[in-house]
Amino acid sequence: MQRRYQIYIPEAKNSFQAEWAEIRTQIAGAVGNGYLFVKLNIFISVTNVDEYKRYKSLIELDLQSIFNHHLPALSITSHAPEEGFSVAVEAAHYSSGEYKVTYHSYNETPYVLVQSKYGNELWAGGLGISEPKIDTADAARHAFEKVVLILTKEGFEMDHIVRQWNYVGDILKIENGFQNYQVFNEIRNEYYHQYRHLPGYPAATGIGMKLDGVLIDFCAVKPSDKVQIQAVDNPKQVNPYAYNQQVLKGQIFEGKVKKQAPQFERAKLIANCLYSSLFISGTASIIGQETIGKGDIEQQTRTTIENIKILSDKAHISALNRQSENLPVEYSVVRVYIKNLADFPVVKEICAQFYGDVPILYIEADICRDDLLVEIEAEMISA
Fold first, then answer.
1. According to the model, what pLDDT value does residue 323 have?
2. Number of neighbouring beta carbons within 10 Å of residue 194
3. Full set of structural domains in the chain with CATH
């Protein structure tokens, strides 16, 4: 049995407290049915940091009770979910005895180890800080320091991260000539340069969040002779780490000769003798390195889905996957970031045509380019 996902959305709009109470009951029921949760991604609609902290505290207290103080990795971000709801949850879980799932904490940050004869995983979330007017560089360093500490504590390395989520407050904002996303890229490079020693990067998402700061989630997989880990490219797209200077926004950092391109792979394949999974990075309407369909939400959504189809093509994956006869053939989860509320109906209609009954969550968020209107990420698994 492989990792599966559940999406928890309230049945109807209500107060935050009422919506969360409904979702909390659903999560408690799943725990009672034997689900071994490894990560909860909780998206909450807030207007200010005080409200965020109040809701976050309520959620954490309730989850401590549900999980009897054995919390899964937890990510609570300032993103408005679809349909005007106050809260929505994307939950990753196992439900098989093949896996030993253990729950840990470091400086009050919960994380999870998943052990099996096929390899070991480490899941962590919500690493960083979300505070008003915090400097993006300081917030990014704070987040990466937490990443390093948890990896080191469990004998993992930065090279073992196969999937990373990067939430950057006001991601497109340019202040004193420096764009927040570009600042994050510079700090990411500092830590990757210091702590990564092997070629390649994780699959990743870099997306805006409403409140200031930087939060990082990750999944790390310790390599072994039973596990193959492979980057997957899209031949129609320039790899992000090869973008030229014209694509990158803002000024060059002091002491640098050029701006740092984003360091992530388009997708990452993890395979063993029985199962395989494909982490598909946050993907947008980009061909080569140029945005396609500027101002056209329908074209951008369809181009994005076509890019994902290329990454997940069976022949493409088969050439890379020599460890397992089982290729990733089905989507286990899809997450869609939409810049403008008015575009939700169009995006949802197109995604429903392609993804059908796949667990899918739509949230409002700024994309990492000002002309991008939608971004989609996904995970695929073998049958």
1. 54
2. 11
3. 4-382 (3.30.1330.40)
